[in-house]
Amino acid sequence: MATLLARPQAQLSPAEALHLAQQAPTILKGNPKAFSASPLVSLFSAAETVELWTIYENLIVTCLQTGDDDSAHLCLERLILRFGGENERVMALKGLIKEAEATNNNELSAVLKEYEDILQQDGTNIYIAKRRVALLRSMGKTPEAISSLVSLLEFNPTDAESWAELSDLYLSQGLYSQAIYALEEVIVLAPNAWNLHAKLGEVTLMAANETSDGSPQKYLANSVKRFCRSIELCEDYLRGYYGLKKVTDKILAEATKFKKQQPEEDEFSLPDQDTLKKLNQAATQKLAEIVRRYGAQEPLWQGYNADEIAAARELLDKSSSEVVRVHKVKISTQACQEDASHRMRACTAWAMAVLPGPRRLTSGGSNAELGIAGHTARGAIQGHAGGVHPGLKRKMIKFIHRRDGLSSQDWGFSMLLLTSLDV
User: Three-state SS for 372?
Assistant: First the structure.
């Protein structure tokens, strides 16, 4: 439980958040309200730890999510006793509780006014500035939230969290170029964060699907690059493999739409078809392994999100059904071709079998006796006067006119046969 309380609360599932909130009274009861600075007192009581204050902060968030406002206030009181009411983090937590307890827009506007008053007195209060952005976004004032974040980043350009939030705000407005730029700034600050590389791959893939500037190929190439970097940094990252399969599926399915273009300077070009197929196959195999091991309840493979596993399983099922459908079409086409060829040969054999041989002909001359071009059957047919059934002729003509499914040899011989019948 201590591990869960030390994690960012946004990563917890609703069930985990509820379980932790239910433990709040026990945690509060098991720890003193305040700690003495005297070394003698510390010998007879629990020592103060950094983890405890982190747990109190996370408990406030969890309790507010589950509606336990009383426990949230108790945690806040202990933080105020330890750090004072003017501490920046404590001030932000106070505002968070007021936001959660607000019942209408007027009360939210009052909290927003308090944030603005604090920032007028101290414009460097980063925590209050971020709470103001979050409140503006929750109230539907996205343009104001973006403007506030831009101002914050001018003051503090190395804040990766603010860049990530700005990217998400741009993405919500369909501003893909700006969202990509903001995410690239995050990666500059955290170059080894595999989840951010995958996130950037997802955004560029969305831009390729929605772009109207005629440059989807550039976005797709960048998407492939980002997903590959993501799984290079974390070889078991599901979202990286999922995204790689999605983007390679799209490129391979629409290969005829993309012309070979010379990439601009410092740009990544699309790999060739063979490389894309190998990447697609590798992503498919890894996704199948992750889904299989997760479903088998293997101990080291249970850290994945259940919704992401379900999405991966659905993608694999869709891919499998498409492969089966294409395979069936190929088999059906081949069977139709073989069937047409066999039926044409059967008609030809029937025509040859029902006719009398050269020695039994009563007319036909030398051609009937010797055959034309050394073919006895044709000479027999030419020498026979009206011995072929009209229905057989029509069936052979139908096959020849359709031609689909007939080999060139069968078609040529059938034409020769009908020519000899003067059809």
Answer: strand
